[in-house]
Write a structure and sequence with these properties.
four-stranded antiparallel β-sheet, mainly beta, 123 residues
Amino acid sequence: VQLQASGGGLAQAGGSLRLSCAASGRTFSSYGMGWFRQAPGKEREFVAAISWSGGSTYYADSVKGRFTISRDNAKNTVYLQMNSLKPEDTAVYCCAASTVVAGSRDSMWYDFWGLGTLVTVSS
């Protein structure tokens, strides 16, 4: 499967952005999906994940209550709605697909990764 993230850009602190990740292939609904981010000079970190049907979601503590992950299996797309953005949210955001788990915080369970989209939040 190929993944393509989009929707990044520049936002002011307190603002919002919506990221999208479009997937190729016919079996999108069988993948657990996740979003990860990597800030300059830092390691990649988990942001959010969603189960195959969208019935279960998982968030990093740092984004809980501000970010919402969702998916539209008919469109082969997963979204990340980011509200109340903070400068520390600045990073390259990547989406990933897992054929093994419904939703995981651990990047080792993800089989496919897309190129990232840059989010920059100014103070």
